[in-house]
Amino acid sequence: MTLLATHDLTAFYGDFQALYGINAHVNEGETVAIVGANGAGKSTLLAAITGRRKAPPQMIEFDGRHIGGMRPAEIMALGIALVPEGRQLFQSLSVEENLLVGNYGRKVRGPWTLERVYSLFPILKERRNQDSNSLSGGQQQMVALGRALMSNPRLLLCDEISLGLAPAVIKDIYKAIANIRAEGASVVIVEQNITQALAVSDRILCLLEGRVTLSGRPGELTRDQIGMAYFGG
Amino acid sequence: MFVLDTLIQGILLGGLYALFATGLSLIFGIMRLVNLAHGDFMIVGAFAVLVLVEALGLPIVFAAALAGVAMFVLGYALQRLLLNRTLGNDILPPLLVTFGLSIILQNGMLETFSADTRRLNLGPLSEASIPLGGGLAAGVVPVLTFASAVLVILFLNWLFYRTETGRAFRATSDNPEIAQLMGIDNNRIFSLAMALALVVVAIAGLYLGARATFDPLIGPSRLIFAFEAVIIGGLGSFWGTLIGGIILGLAQTIGAQVSPEWQTLSGHVVFLIVLVLRPRGLFPRSVD
């Protein structure tokens, strides 16, 4: 069943068009990777889905409802959580407070509780009372992921979660993504790192200059196809 | 003894300035809004208590509680309907709008209450004092003022650091855009913050009117004391604001002992010295 769908989604920054009619969908329980170079429109797409950019209502559909243009807090309450690019933790809140604030607008029963997040990332339990900016980049990324999980989202959006992290840490983070998938949430992974995206996703979507240039299952696509779609040619 | 007396009076006066400043600090901390009508709202609070006492004959405690509730509602509505629309990347619109509000409030009060100086009459309490031994005494009203300031700050610290609403306040202060992604409605949070600030303002107005006379036009001069207390204490810390108020109160009281015309001036001088030596105040908390 389709959970999220965009219908001919367009977006403009003044005269500049960032998205040219994106048709994409995510099924219930599915993990979709969206890859593309800088400026391909990935962040704009996420901003429209999360309500940070206004979109016409019918262009974005979530669980049968038109959510385009709704306020970010309303969209979050429906069950869409974002792990924002660059972590964006709340600096004056401790690690635990950052996690707790994650379910401010949506308190539903589900697999994810503070205890479950701590068992997914045990290091965070040790650091629970520390300032969030005293953590390493990888640990901060864990807090950002945990914060999004606290609302038990139906759809988890991950924006560039491997950016700036060491390969070993990236592996840990993606191991956690596999655990999160196993709990049944749909996941969208936005990445420039194609290898990671391919390894973890059921389906892949390639964006180039505001258009979908390729989509398919990782096993069915060749490296060359993806390379062409990614860089153009 | 004489020195000790001056110190006690100065510290107690600091409690009043801390009450002036706490609401201002709260609002600036959460939404980076400088409310230039803050002082005038204190006078509105004082007149609200006065009207409830004189026109309706309510006991002062009930009058103050009712004024507090009214100011809460006024603060919420003011933020929701007007000030939220002025917030954005530009700091000028909220400054201009609250400056305009200040003028409107002053003239509205002049029109309604005339320019007469007024005072909240607490009956025998006004003159009562607590003997401290050795010929020293502290007035009951100044002691109540100081105790109220401490209670207000204890409450706000509990709210900010122990409750979910407080977490939402601090998260919004850190990063309003990301806070929205956690389901925090900025408009609601800002409105709640202004409502709380105006309750503190009502308490400040009560003691302002009980300790000295007031008239519709003295708001701005009290606003300066509030600014000075906040800046001396350092942005983002309520206890810092209390210390800032005490330092200002001490400076003024000591100055007044030297020469009465030095009272306000010495407060300003100490403020300027702190600003030169510690531009971020004595106990800054905010990271930016």
Summarize the structure.
The complex is a heterodimer of chains A (233) and B (288). Chain A contains nine helices and ten strands.
Structure, explained:
The complex is a heterodimer of chains A (233) and B (288). Chain A starts with a strand and ends with a helix. Chain A has one domain: Rossmann fold. With 233 residues, chain A is an alpha/beta fold. In chain A, 34% of the residues lie in helices and 26% in strands. In chain A, helix 3 packs parallel to helix 6 (137-149) and helix 6 (137-149) runs parallel beside helix 7 (167-182). Chain B has 288 residues and is mainly alpha-helical. Chain B has a single domain (2-114, 138-277), classed as ABC transporter involved in vitamin B12 uptake, BtuC (Orthogonal Bundle), CATH 1.10.3470. Chain B is 73% helix and 3% strand. Chain B has 11 helices and 2 strands. In chain B, a hairpin with a 2-residue loop joins strand 1 (129-133) and strand 2. Chain B is globular and about 60 Å long. The relative contact order of chain B is 0.21. The mean pLDDT of chain B is 94. Chains A and B meet through helix 2 and helix 3 of A and helix 6 and helix 7 of B.
Per-chain topology:
The complex is a heterodimer of chains A (233) and B (288).
Chain A: E1 2-13, E2 16-27, E3 31-35, H1 42-50, E4 60-62, E5 65-66, H2 72-78, E6 80-83, H3 95-101, H4 114-120, H5 122-126, H6 137-149, E7 155-159, H7 167-182, E8 186-191, H8 194-200, E9 203-208, E10 211-216, H9 223-231
Parallel strand pairs in A: 3-8, 3-9, 6-7, 7-8
Antiparallel strand pairs in A: 1-2, 1-4, 4-5, 9-10
Helix pairs in contact in A: 3-6, 6-7
Chain B: H1 2-31, H2 38-54, H3 60-81, H4 92-113, E1 129-133, E2 136-139, H5 140-162, H6 164-174, H7 176-181, H8 186-211, H9 219-233, H10 238-258, H11 262-277
Antiparallel strand pairs in B: 1-2
Helix pairs in contact in B: 1-5, 1-8, 1-9, 1-10, 2-3, 2-4, 2-8, 2-9, 3-8, 5-6, 5-8, 6-8, 9-10, 9-11, 10-11
